[in-house]
Design a protein that fits this description.
With 405 residues, the chain is α/β, with parallel strands linked by helices. The chain folds into two domains: 197 residues, 3-Layer(aba) Sandwich (Rossmann fold); 127 residues, Rossmann fold (3-Layer(aba) Sandwich), CATH 3.40.50.2300. The chain is built from 13 helices and 16 strands. Helix 4 links the parallel strand 4 and strand 5. Helix 3 packs parallel to helix 4. The chain is globular, with a radius of gyration of 23 Å.
Length: 405
């Protein structure tokens, strides 16, 4: 009888321990599924696209050689949102409802990012944005289930815009992509120009995506502005710069790409891009850690990473660390962990604020002359490190609903 009582007690204790373990390590659907939703075929596919899928895969492999967390399998899926908000929203809804995706990353293109954020908030799922730029993502449109990881229009405006105004380029005309990102980038840069004693003499908006920028550039040329600020990105920026050179505009006016990636410089070539000032959140040749990781990336992609690719890697890696630390994929628990844990993964270092902005240093870069480049992809002079606090909108100026005043 005594033996039976002891046996029952041991069995009960085991069941209690097992129940506690299940509770402590709760992973919905017994899998952690990460979705890379990006531009796989359009104008941003070079700076994001397949490179983002590779970066996410690298993060999973670096986190766990057997691709597991808490004993559960980590799965990776990807899709092309074609830079369209409706396609993005539909795919996000399908992933969350049918495929049980836990987190969506990349989300290049502001309209796509905002669409995915809205669905994620409704479904209580997480978005980690590395590709889109709009300040509104963590300001007027912020959500409790989102982190803006890599850069935003505020950082670009105080970086590139601020540097050009300080250099005496105070008279501006904007050529702007006609969607949320372009509007926000023009707005934020114009604020920097005006507050620094400069003047905006005009602007024109072009269709997104575009191909022929001649009429817009000629209006900018006719304005007589010192600076033609390009509030666009990717192939739109590349084509704008090429066509400005063809028209001889660059001989008398300064072309300033307000968002430019190393992949854009590579496409243009140093002869065409030399001397351009850009702001980025990551540069592969910044230090030993960034070089080591970037060479591994290059081995798979045959191109050096953009800051979007680096941001996707960092976001996925730190998401998985948060899942491991909380022993759960519960959205609230993971988000709380992300926002309470300083990040230092070799590519980025900083903290995630209440509004969901990952606050980290940015870099003011100048494109090298052809004779200054000594190795492939050796494209930038690092002219300044912009401290995290200076590169991020002060919380005191935020209108995000998550920020307590």
């Amino acid at each position: 009888m005594k033996y039976k009582l002891v046996t029952k007690a041991i069995a009960a204790a085991c069941l209690t321990a097992m129940a506690a373990g299940v509770s402590a390590q709760k992973v919905s659907d017994d899998v952690i599924k990460i979705g890379v939703l990006t531009d796989l075929s359009g104008i941003y596919s070079d700076l994001a696209g397949q490179g983002s899928v590779i970066a996410a895969r690298m993060a999973i492999e670096d986190f766990s050689k057997n691709k597991t967390v808490l004993g559960k399998k980590i799965e990776l899926v990807s899709a092309d949102h074609q830079n369209k908000a409706d396609i993005t929203a539909n795919k996000a809804r399908e992933w969350f409802d049918k495929e049980k995706v836990d987190v969506i990353v990349d989300l290049v293109t502001t309209s796509a990012a905002l669409a995915a954020m809205e669905v994620a908030e409704q479904k209580n799922k997480i978005t980690l944005i590395s590709g889109a730029a709009s300040l509104d993502i963590t300001n007027s449109k912020c959500t409790a289930t989102n982190v803006h990881w890599t850069y935003d229009t505020y950082a670009l405006s105080v970086g590139t815009g601020g540097a050009m105004v300080k250099a005496g380029k105070k008279n501006w005309f904007f050529v702007t992509a006609d969607y949320a990102f372009g509007h926000n980038l023009e707005r934020d840069t114009a604020a920097v120009v005006n507050s620094s004693g400069g003047k905006v003499v005009g602007s024109v908006r072009h269709p997104f995506p575009g191909s022929d920028f001649s009429s817009f550039l000629l209006k900018a040329q006719a304005s007589g502005a010192q600076v033609i600020g390009l509030a666009n990105a990717g192939q739109d920026t590349i084509n704008s710069i090429k066509q400005a050179a063809e028209f001889g505009i660059t001989q008398k006016q300064t072309i300033v790409p307000l968002l430019m990636f190393i992949t854009d410089v590579h496409s243009l070539g140093l002869k065409a891009a030399q001397g351009l000032t850009v702001t980025e959140g990551f540069y592969w040749d910044f230090n030993d850690k960034t070089r080591a990781w970037s060479k591994r990336f290059f081995a798979q992609h045959k191109r050096m990473p953009s800051m979007v690719h680096a941001g996707v890697y960092s976001a996925v890696l730190n998401y998985l660390k948060a899942v491991e630390a909380t022993k759960s994929d519960d959205t609230a628990a993971v988000m709380a962990k992300l926002k309470s844990t300083p990040i230092d993964d070799g590519l980025f270092k900083g903290v995630i604020r209440a509004d969901g902005k990952f606050e980290h240093d940015m870099y003011l870069l100048e494109v090298k002359k052809p004779n200054e480049s000594t190795t492939p992809w050796d494209y930038y002079h690092v002219r300044a490190v912009i401290p995290a606090k200076d590169a991020t909108l002060p919380l005191s100026k935020s209108v995000c609903k998550l920020v307590k005043k």
